[in-house]
Amino acid sequence: MSLNAESVAAPVEDSELVAQCQHGDTLAFNELVTRYRNKVYAMIYNMVRNEQDAWDLAQDGFLKAWKSIGKFRGQSSFYTWLYRIMMNVTIDWVRKKRIQGEGEFDETLGLKGIDPGAVAVAKTELLPHRKMEAAEIRARIDQAIEKLTPEHRAVILMREMDGLEYQEIADAMGCSIGTVMSRLFYARKKMQGLLSDVYENI
Amino acid sequence: MKTFEENFTAWVDGTLNSQERAKFEASLVSLQEAEAEKTAAQRLGSLIREHVPAPEMSNADFFNHQILRQIEERHSAPEQAKAGGIFWTLPRMAWAGAFCLAMAGAIYGVAVPKTVRQAAAGQEYVAKILNAETDDPAISATAYHDDDENVTVLWLGGLDYIPEDRLLR
User: Fold this and answer.
1) Which of A185, B83, B101, B169 is the most exposed place for a label (fewest CB within 10 A)?
2) Which of B41, B44, B48, B52 shows the shortest CA–CA distance to B8?
3) Residues in chain A with pLDDT values less than 50
4) Which of A119, A181, A202 sits opposite B9 (nearest CB)?
5) Helix, strand, coil % in chain B, rounded to nearest 5
6) What is the mean pLDDT of chain B?
7) How far is B64 from chain A (nearest CA, A)?
8) How far apart are CA B20 and CA B37, in angstroms?
9) DSSP bridge pairs for B127
10) What is the DSSP letter of B124?
11) Is the separation of the CB atoms in B139 and B157 below 8 Å?
C-alpha cells in the first residue's frame, strides 16, 4: 500500500487542498483532516494504546500541521509529511510517558544474544491456539509492542500495519533507509522472542 | 555497504535482487536457521495484521470541529491584537499628544494661582547640573538666573584651585 493511494483516489488532489490551506482556507484543511484522520488515529492508537490519548495526539498533530503548512513545499506527499509530524508528536509523548519502562530494547544486542532456536521451538506448556481467544492474542501483541522503544514501535507498525515502503518510513521518521531496516530487524527480533509461543501455536 | 541487519530485513521482505540474495545467502552460517527466522518474521507480520486493530475514530465530526475551532481561536487572537494596534496610527498619536499638552496647559492656567506662578518665576535657582564630569564627588555645579540683573550664573563649588582670572571677588 502506498502513501499516495488514498490521495490519488480522492476527487480533489491533496496538493490542491494544501495550496488552498496555504492561503488560509480552513475548509480545505478540514477536508484533509477528514481524509486522513482515521489512518492517523489508528497508527497513533497502536502506538499509545489509549483512545483518548490517541485522539488528543492526533488533534495536536493536525494543529501542528496547520501551523506549519506554509512551509510544506511538496517534496514528499502530504501524507508522508503529515505522518512525520504525527510520528514526532507521538514518539515525544511516548518518551515522556516512559511507556517502555523496563522493557526498553537494547539495539546493541548482537545476533549471538538471540537464540536462533527461539522461534522454531514451541513452548508446549503454554495455551494451544484453539484455547487462546483472539482477545488474548491481541493482548499479548499489545504487551510486546509496549516493550519496544517508540522508534521500533513506529517502524514495525508502519511496515506491518500500513505496509509502507522503507523509503516512506524513512521520510516519516526523518532517518535513513538503513536505520529503518536496522530498526525493523531488531523490532522483529524482539517481538519474535516475546511472541514465539503465540504464533508457534497458531 | 549494507549491514547484516539491513540485508537480513531486505531478505525477509523479499526486496533483494537475485544477485544480492545469492550473495547474502552464501554469507550465512546456517541457511536453515535463517530460513526459520525468515518464516517466523513473516508469521509475525501476519499475526500483527490479523490481530492488531485499526480502530475507527469515535466522534470524528467533533474531532474536526475542535480542530477548526482551535484554528479560528488562534487566528482571531492575532487579528484582535492587530485591530487594536491599527487604531493608534502615527497621526492619531501626534494629535493625541498635542491634545494632552493643550489640556495640561489649560489646567495649569486655570488651576495654578498666579501668585504661585510669579513666585516660581522669581526663584533664583533654575537648574541643577546633573552630569558634571569630575573625579571628585565633592565638586558641584549649579546654574541660576536672576531676572532683575538679567544674568545666568554658573556656580562651581568644591574646587581646590581656580585660576586667578576666574575668581569671584
Assistant:
1) B169
2) B41
3) 1-2, 5-8, 102-127
4) A181
5) 60, 10, 30
6) 78
7) 7
8) 18
9) B143
10) S
11) yes
